[in-house]
Amino acid sequence: MKTQSKVVEYDFEASEFNCEIAPGKIIKAWGFNKQLPGPVLRANAGDTLVVRVTNNLSEPTTIHWHGIRLPASMDGTDGVQKQINPGEVFEYRFIVPDAGTFWYHSHTNETVQMERGIITEERLGSCTALLLSALIFGAAHLINPDSSIISAICTAVVGFVLGAAYIFSRSLWMPIAIHFSWNFMQSGIFGVITSGNDKTGGLFNLNIVGSEYVTGGAYGPEGTIQAVLLCIDEVIGQLPRLLLGGVKSFVGKVPIGNTGGANVPGFQPIEIPEELKQIMNK
């Protein structure tokens, strides 16, 4: 028996809240009505669904109704629907055309608001984890040609800096960029040996002559005292903050789960021709 169509209304508040994901395990989360996952919406095919969203987050957001056929202005996609800025209220209103199970999610700054998962830290803490990962990083380079205990220690110090770069930025892009640029400058620009590997040819072709402690010998500049001092200088500058305050102190005001603390705006809405609007709204 077909039921009469009706208007189904919900009120959503997008905000940050403390979420207990397991007994005693509390994280900072972004969600609707302080729920993770968000509230379940129920309606019948043919009903008019109304969802009023109040954005109390620190950056714009939207709701994209995944798989539901609806007007483009209600779609929640950057460049199609205007973003809901902090402090604003937006009302989604559309007819639900089909029966089914659908999911909804933000379509603004998706790397933070949708794709980002749960980040937890082990009991040992970031400092111990950095030291262990640095030792493993250095030891792994012992299999490289012409490696030594000295070169492994030098590489371990570099590994500490790479790990600290991730903790600082909360993004793998920073340590990847540092590592890539470090290796590219050695082999691609100066044409010197990198981590004991053969020369690949660069913009210049240098032969470094001198003491092994200064040149790195057959292992390359990564095994030099200069490289170690450079990395130690960075470690000394950051380690006390990490020891005293943990991750929160180390990264300053950057919240875990945000892209380096930066507010990454989405695309601005584009102007859609009236003819196209009429087609999309049918």
UniProtKB/TrEMBL annotation:
Key words, A-Z: Membrane, Transmembrane, Transmembrane helix
- GO molecular function terms attached to this record: copper ion binding; endopeptidase activity
- PANTHER family linked to this entry: MEMBRANE-ASSOCIATED PROTEASE-RELATED, PROTEASE
CAAX prenyl protease 2/Lysostaphin resistance protein A-like domain boundaries: 123-185
Q: Which InterPro entries match?
A: Cu-oxidase-like_N, Cupredoxin, DUF3703, Rce1/LyrA-like_dom
Q: What residues does the Plastocyanin-like domain cover?
A: 19-118
Q: Where are the transmembrane segments?
A: 124-143, 149-168
Source organism superkingdom = Eukaryota
Record family assignment: Belongs to the multicopper oxidase family.
Instruction: Output the Pfam families linked to this UniProt entry.
Output: Cu-oxidase_3, DUF3703, Rce1-like
Designated name of the protein: Uncharacterized protein
Keyword tRNA processing belongs to the record: no
Q: Which GO terms describe its biological process?
A: CAAX-box protein maturation
